[in-house]
Amino acid sequence: NDQYLHESDIYDYVQRNEFKSSPDYKFLEYYGRNIKNPQNNIQNSQNNIQNSQNNSQEKEIVIDMRNGKKITFKNKMGLNLPGYCLQVTEFNCNYILYSKYLEDNLSDTNKLIDIMKNVLDIKKKLFVDHKFVHWDFHNDNLFIDTTHKNPEHHIPVFFDFDLSTIQIGENLFGTDCGKNDIYETNKKEIIK
Asked: Helix, strand, coil shares of the chain as percentages rounded to 5?
């Protein structure tokens, strides 16, 4: 749950104008979240734990959106939800997975190289400017916005930030989230 709270914090942070001003890339639009942390519900006595579990079958979960509207998720299946972090992001049918985009362009080697170079250049720019590191970057964790008819204007759309780090002010945010054990040193040392 904390990993996804971290992810929603990064989504929230990259919605700022400094990230939206680039014509070269986007971050997936983020609208809001609702969090229920099971750690806040657990009490010392066994009775309270049992009550907490019995009361976790919520009928509706409401997410307050950034624009003031609300989205209601109905739990019609009666799922036991002891903890969750529900996030609402945009859906755009013009965004296709990077893996699919690469596959669709295999016949045009030059275009393929240009696409891959563009993505890597943008990742480098985001690191230099914001110390942004995805830490789980692969072909299915990136969209390409194909809205524009001219492929030269297709741009990457970043998403899935549960392992990501980013600099916020003077602080490096996200160095303690995710699977630090998969790295030989910690994230902070790697970034420096």
From this structure: 35, 25, 40
